[in-house]
Specification:
Blueprint lengths: L3 H24 L17
Length: 44
């Protein structure tokens, strides 16, 4: 059985990564980068 704290950490990292990927997909650029296709802004 997996430790609850380990499971929490895995879920947090997974959700964070998915959010980063979706934001990158939406903005059409990686964090701290601007391109000709850049749209919108990412705060934080």
């Amino acid at each position: 059985m997996i430790d609850p704290d380990s499971l929490k950490a895995i879920v947090e990292v997974t959700i964070q990564r998915v959010l980063e990927l979706k934001t990158t997909e939406h903005l059409r650029t990686r964090p701290h980068e601007r391109t000709d296709a850049w749209r919108g802004h990412q705060n934080g």
